Structures are given as C-alpha cells and as structure tokens.
C-alpha cells in the first residue's frame, strides 16, 4: 500500500492530521478507515483541494473499497468527490446529510441545501440560535473563569513538576539520560562517517576548509573548518552551531573569527534544517520556518532534536580527529534555535568540555509552553518530555562542566 501522507507532493499538512510515529509504525490514512470498518463510512473529497491532493484521496478510497469488499460490507463505504476547494462545501454537506439519513433514519434521498433554506428560512434561523452556545461564539470572552488551550497546557506543565522530580530522584543520572536519548530519538549507533573536502580559502590568520560530513542514509552536514595559521602544539577547539546558519558569523568580523584569533580551531556546521539545509518550502507556516521537516520527523519517530544531536556528535567525531586538536579542551556554542540542541548534545556526550548558549531558550515550560505564539518552536517539540525533564535538568547533568547563557 502506498504511503499516502508522504506521497503527496504538497507535503505534510496541519498537525491535527499527523500523530507521532505514524510513519514509524506504518500507519496510513486508509488504516483509519479500516479501524472504523465495517461501520458505515463516507469519504468527502474535493478535486481542487489545496491541502489534500485528489489523487491521493482517490487511492485511499480505492484501498478502503477493497477492505469493505473483503469484509462483505461494500454498501457501507462510499467515496464522494466534488469539483470544489478545501472545506465542508455545500455538495459535501448535502452528501453528509444524505449519508446520515440513510444510516440513522433509513431514508436514502437527496436533501438539497438550497431547498431547505428556501422552504424553512425561519426554522433554520431559529435552529441556528438554539445551537449557539454563546452570543459571540467565544467562551473566553463570556466566561471569566474559562481557560484557553494554551492556559491548560501551561497549568499541566506546571503540575508535572512533581513527576519530573520523582523521575530524577528515583533513577541514576545515566538512566535519566538514557530515557532522554530515547525521547529525542538520538541513536547510540549510527552509520560510518565520511568527510568530503569541497575546497578551501585563506585569510590572514587562518585557512578555511569547506567540508561535507556524510553518514549513510542521513542528511549531509555542511561545515567550515577554521584552522589558525602559524600555531604550534595542540589547540583548543570550538564546535559552533548557529540556528541562523554557519555563514552568519563566518565573515572576517564575525564571532567565529574572534575565536580563531584566540588560537582556537573552529568547526562551524549547519545541523539539518539550519543554513544550507534549511526547509525553504515551509514558508513560515504556523509561525515556523521548518514546519514540514518537523512534522515528517515526528511522523517517522525521530524528532528533529535527536537528528540534530546526532549531527553534532558526528561533527565532534570529525573535530577530535583533526591534527593538533586538544580533545580535552573542546567547547560547544549554540546560537538561537541551535541552543537546546547543543545543550542536549553536551548532556549526552562528555567530550564537550563547556557550553555557551546565545539568545537561546532556557526552559520548555517558560519559553515554549508559556509562549506558544513565538516563532520557530516546532523543532523543539519532544513528546512526553515534561513528564521527565526540562532544560535546567540537562544543565545539572552537565555540571561541573561550564554552562553559560548569553
């Protein structure tokens, strides 16, 4: 059976249609129809839908028809499409009404929506008023004690503080970190690392090597290796991960060159979804520039966080193997969106001797749950995380190594 969600060239739609790990466990749209079988089911599709491609919907319908036929209940399934756009349009409403009347009232007849409006305008207006729960349609406006979904999420996050404390009290640090590794989908064993050189250039104080870090089946990680010139002996090193992309601070006056001028070797990378590998197709949907890749990552059961941590660990492998690097003096810097990624990597990999986070969130609760409208949070989503940890817990596991927020 074709995986209809990933087959669509439009890519993943809203989060309301994508449950965590669906792809990992091979669950597809047709499976939800099968779950409801043999109960009566109708699919309402639109040929000009800009969210769900009609061809994919048709294939789901064909799969469902085969399922119901195999169960001997063909009459209980129907696929209906209209030449309309996305939405519960009049043809869909009429079909839904007919389908419900057929199976609930044993009456199979067309009920034109326009006829009802013309014949019973007063009755429909009265019915609409009876169905209205509030004058404005917004319970938050009319009930002083009502809470929004965001409010409820924040309250729940706070309530879980006891569960988090118990988790850390009842388990060793290694056990806690193993659980966090599983939550973010960061694997213990990954494929062999290959490094390709894509050219170099010289500046007054350093040579810059363009690298591509590759692992079988993974997104290539573009990198810039800054090697100070005329330095003897082993050098301290910095792994620099900038959520805005590695080029942001790579110029002659940028932050990376300031580190190089301190006689540090610097490896600046674009972890997947940053810089050269950014998801340019999301177009800021739902206040996120990485909506599509984050949803797909969730679908396959490998959150972006875990994938990016793996990128950092692969980059560390490359950095420590460089000639003249002092592997006991490695710092990691995470800027903006890359901050939590670097923090997770440092908690899971003690090769990182110190951590600096710049303009980064400090807490899932205070900076994510409490601020759901700020941009580019979806890449930080870790399911069930707050039952076990918040970012300050990671800081505690890193200490006595240095962790600094700027």
Walk me through the topology.
Elements: H1 4-7, H2 29-36, E1 41-46, H3 54-70, E2 77-82, H4 90-104, H5 113-119, H6 121-131, H7 139-142, H8 149-159, H9 161-170, H10 173-184, E3 193-202, E4 206-215, E5 221-228, E6 235-242, H11 255-260, E7 265-269, H12 291-299, H13 304-320, E8 325-335, H14 339-348, E9 354-358, H15 364-369, H16 391-398, E10 402-405
Parallel strand pairs: 1-2, 6-7, 6-8, 8-9, 9-10
Antiparallel strand pairs: 3-4, 4-5, 5-7
Descriptive overview:
This protein has helices at residues 4-7, 29-36, 54-70, 90-104, 113-119, 121-131, 139-142, 149-159, 161-170, 173-184, 255-260, 291-299, 304-320, 339-348, 364-369, 391-398, and strands at 41-46, 77-82, 193-202, 206-215, 221-228, 235-242, 265-269, 325-335, 354-358, 402-405. The protein has 406 residues and is an alpha/beta fold. The strands form two sheets. Strands 3-4-5-7-6-8-9-10 form an eight-stranded mixed beta sheet. It has a two-stranded parallel sheet with strand order 1-2. Helix 14 (339-348) crosses helix 16.
């Amino acid at each position: 059976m074709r995986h209809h969600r990933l087959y669509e060239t439009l890519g993943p739609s809203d989060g309301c249609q994508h449950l965590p790990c669906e792809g990992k466990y091979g669950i597809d749209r047709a499976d939800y129809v099968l779950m409801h079988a043999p109960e009566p089911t109708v699919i309402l599709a639109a040929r000009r839908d800009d969210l769900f491609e009609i061809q994919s919907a048709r294939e789901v319908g064909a799969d469902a028809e085969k399922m119901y036929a195999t169960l001997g209940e063909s009459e209980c399934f129907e696929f209906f499409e209209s030449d309309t756009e996305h939405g519960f349009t009049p043809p869909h409403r009429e079909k839904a009404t007919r389908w419900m009347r057929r199976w609930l009232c044993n009456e199979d007849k067309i009920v034109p929506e326009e006829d009802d409006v013309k014949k019973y305008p007063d009755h429909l207006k009265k019915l609409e008023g009876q169905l209205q729960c509030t004058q404005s349609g917004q319970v938050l406006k009319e009930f002083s004690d009502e809470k929004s979904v965001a409010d409820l999420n924040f309250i729940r996050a706070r309530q879980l503080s006891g569960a988090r404390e118990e988790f850390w009290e009842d388990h060793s640090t290694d056990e806690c970190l193993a659980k966090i590794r599983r939550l973010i989908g960061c694997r213990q064993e990954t494929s062999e690392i290959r490094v390709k050189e894509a050219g170099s250039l010289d500046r007054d104080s350093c040579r810059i090597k363009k690298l591509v870090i590759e692992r079988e089946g993974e997104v290539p990680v573009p990198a810039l290796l800054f090697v100070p010139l005329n330095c003897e002996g082993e050098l301290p090193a910095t792994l620099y991960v900038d959520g805005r992309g590695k080029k942001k601070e790579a110029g002659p006056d940028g932050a990376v060159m300031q580190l190089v001028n301190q006689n540090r070797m610097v490896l600046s990378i674009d972890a997947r979804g940053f810089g050269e590998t950014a998801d340019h197709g999301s177009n800021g949907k739902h206040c996120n520039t990485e909506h599509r890749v984050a949803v797909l990552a969730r679908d396959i059961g490998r959150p972006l966080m875990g994938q990016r941590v793996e990128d950092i660990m692969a980059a560390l492998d490359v950095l420590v193997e460089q000639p003249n690097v002092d592997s006991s003096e490695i710092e990691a810097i995470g800027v903006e969106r890359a901050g939590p990624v670097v923090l997770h990597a440092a908690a899971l990999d003690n090769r990182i001797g110190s951590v600096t986070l710049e303009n980064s969130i400090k807490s899932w609760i205070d900076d994510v749950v409490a601020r759901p409208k700020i941009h580019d949070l979806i890449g930080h989503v870790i399911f069930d995380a707050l039952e076990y940890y918040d970012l300050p817990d990671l800081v505690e596991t890193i200490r006595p190594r240095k962790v600094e927020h700027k």
